[in-house]
Design a protein that fits this description.
- By secondary structure, this protein is an alpha+beta fold.
- It has helices at residues 29-32, 39-42, 62-66, 71-88, 173-186, 232-239, 243-249, 254-261, 375-399, 404-422, 425-429; strands spanning 8-15, 51-57, 95-103, 106-113, 121-130, 140-148, 157-165, 208-214, 269-270, 300-306, 320-326, 338-343.
- A 6-stranded mixed beta sheet has the order 3-4-2-1-12-11, covered by helices on one side. A 6-stranded mixed beta sheet has the order 5-6-7-8-10-9.
- A hairpin with a 2-residue loop joins strand 3 (95-103) and strand 4.
- The termini are far apart.
Length: 430
């Protein structure tokens, strides 16, 4: 199919629980190429996605991420993903890596099909920001933006992918909302080359936006609600076992409610996440058993928007959601990966084919995303602290043969031995 038609985009997200190179199985077909599940939709013409976007959170041990020692894991993950995509997609299509970006443990890879969109991709940009303490990157987001030229007009369309990991714990709803607004204000991209403005742009200055990751929004059932008969974790677990109950349970989902209220993820849409079980928190090594110490929740999400979506219809999108599901068979993390297959609308023909500006998202009149004037200072303050703390932590881990605690003990033991050795012999004899 021509790239001037409906583009087929696949988006995946997985919190790998700090596993590094062991974070995903060798065979990724269930997650990255779930073609059997969409056979009825694609039965007439099996089709490989035009664009793959794959995001990770907690990609590697935190001390390595903070110290910036992620290159080996990133390169290995890139090669692994691409080999699996090319091995299992219909027609065994070849793909080009458009871009990859990582900040501490949050990483994003985007690939384009060589026989289609890859040939028209240009103006590739990457960006990162931290939302942790003092803007550190233990939590935060990364982004990839590019333009597909001559799509609808000479200017084409701009695609922006954002992968995020937000503040954890059910009680931290306000901080998650603040994380989102910080990302909007500091995950900034240069203006379009033909733009008359020289100001940085937010994630919303795009034709298509995809927002994915471990967003950590939880399920909050009011104590007075009749559904809450026992302790909350067990009650949520009981309600998540079938489609009808999950459809009721979704009404207590923090993210859905904040999106409806317009306090976060403004303008973004999402598929029916309640059709699959909560993606967190599982016992390690288990396909279908939750950790009873935590309330199950749909923490792992994928949202999207396109420039033809109307701000007056916040629940309706011109993007067709073909599939949105989790993959229960992955058991090395306490999260389950999620995947979303999306069919974008055909490009909108403009009155002037020579139009220089790509179309951008339409947002409610009450919301204007604004770049943070101190974004660069905040980002590099966080990164400097990342490197300092990460390097010290890494050194202690090396000294402790893999354990920072043992490393601290060994450090002080060595310091004491050195001080004893430096004491003059006469003082010792005295």
């Amino acid at each position: 199919m021509s790239i001037d038609g409906n583009l087929f985009v696949q988006v995946g997200s997985y919190n790998t629980n700090l596993q590094g190179g062991a974070g995903v199985p060798q065979d990724l077909v269930d997650w990255l190429v779930p073609t059997l599940q969409v056979a009825s939709f694609l039965s007439k013409e099996p089709r490989a996605p035009d664009i793959f976007a794959v995001g990770f959170q907690e990609l590697l041990p935190l001390h390595l991420g903070l110290a910036g020692l992620s290159k080996a894991v990133i390169d290995d993950r890139d090669a692994h993903i691409r080999s699996q995509i090319e091995k299992h997609t219909p027609g065994k299509e070849s793909y080009t890596l458009v871009a990859k970006v990582v900040n501490v443990g949050v990483a994003l890879f985007v690939y384009a099909r060589d026989s289609g969109v890859a040939r028209r991709i240009c103006d590739v940009q990457t960006q990162w920001t931290g939302t942790g303490p003092a803007y550190m990157g233990n939590k935060g987001a990364v982004g990839i933006r590019f333009r597909i030229s001559d799509r609808g007009s000479k200017a084409g369309e701009v695609f922006t992918f954002v992968c995020a990991h937000l503040t954890a714990h059910g009680r931290e709803l306000a901080r998650r909302i603040a994380d989102y607004h910080h990302i909007v204000g500091t995950l900034l991209f240069p203006p379009h080359p033909s733009s008359p403005s020289s100001s940085s742009t937010t994630i919303y200055s795009t034709s298509h936006l995809f927002f994915l990751g471990d967003l950590n929004f939880r399920i909050t059932i009011p104590p007075s609600h009749p559904h809450l008969q026992t302790s909350e974790p067990y009650d949520v677990l009981a309600m998540s076992k079938d489609d009808v109950s999950r459809a009721q349970l979704k009404e207590f989902d923090q993210l859905l409610n904040q999106r409806r209220q317009g306090t976060a993820f403004i303008g973004l849409r999402e598929g029916p996440f309640w059709t699959f079980k909560c993606t967190y928190k599982y016992k390690l090594g288990e396909v279908d058993r939750y950790n009873p110490k935590r309330t199950p929740a749909w923490t792992d999400r994928i949202m999207y928007a396109t420039h033809t979506d109307s701000p007056d219809k916040p629940e309706k999108s011109d993007i067709t959601n073909i599939l949105y599901t989790s993959i229960p068979s992955y058991v090395t993390s306490d999260h389950k990966p999620v995947v979303c297959l999306l069919l974008l609308p055909p490009p909108t023909a403009t009155s002037s084919p020579e139009t220089c500006e790509p179309p951008v998202l339409r947002l409610p009149s009450s919301y204007t995303p604004t770049p943070d004037p101190h974004a660069t200072l905040k980002r590099y303050t966080g990164r400097t602290l990342d490197r300092i703390i990460g390097s010290i932590w890494w050194l202690l881990t090396v000294v402790g043969a893999g354990s920072a605690v043992v490393g601290i003990f060994n450090f002080f033991l060595g310091l004491a031995a050195w001080r004893w050795w430096k004491v003059p012999v006469a003082d010792v004899d005295a």
